[in-house]
Design goal:
There is one protein chain. 65% of the residues lie in helices and 0% in strands. By secondary structure, it is mostly helical. It has one domain. One of its GO terms (cellular component) is endoplasmic reticulum membrane.
């Protein structure tokens, strides 16, 4: 998956963050496809494994998982609001939604978008938890979790292509 070319050092300074295809960890399309294959295989395996077993009680695991998601989302939202407000004050409201400055496509706001992208991988555990609880998993749930990873990746890659 070309992880040998990943540069983790760019993740240590959010203010200097810049998405780079194949260099930023998890930026390769092969990672997304591999995650999809693993996601579907693990969930189908869990469903098969649970066929002859009673539903698993995962109350504590579910609570911790949801707490992590809530805190993670709150932090991303808070940083996003701060950066949005800062950009609004320094560049005007128009630059918050549609910018022509390629330097605006780097830094902490895009780092937060990248962290949001990584959170989509963690959210795949939602489906595993549902499978172990023997809850129904509708197509929309599968589709949403799979496609959002690609959608957020495309935001980052589109900004990267614009900045070149």
């Amino acid at each position: 998956m070309y992880s040998y070319s990943w540069d983790y050092s760019q993740l240590t300074s959010p203010n200097e963050f810049s998405w780079s295809l194949g260099v930023t960890p998890f930026s390769n399309l092969a990672v997304i496809v591999s995650a999809w294959v693993a996601y579907f295989a693990v969930v189908m395996g869990c469903r098969k494994f649970m066929e002859s077993r009673p539903p698993t009680s995962l109350r504590m695991i579910t609570a911790v998982h949801n707490l992590i998601l809530c805190v993670w989302s709150a932090l991303m939202c808070a940083y996003g609001i701060v950066d949005f407000y800062s950009r609004w004050k320094s560049r005007g409201i128009g630059e918050c939604f549609c910018t022509s400055d390629e330097n605006a496509l780097k830094g902490r706001l895009f780092y937060i978008t990248y962290i949001y992208y990584l959170s989509k991988y963690y959210e795949l555990l939602d489906t595993v938890i549902l499978a172990l609880k023997k809850k129904p998993i509708i197509f929309l749930h599968w589709y949403h979790h799979a496609i959002v990873i690609l959608m957020v990746w495309s935001w980052l890659e589109d900004a990267n292509m614009y900045a070149r």
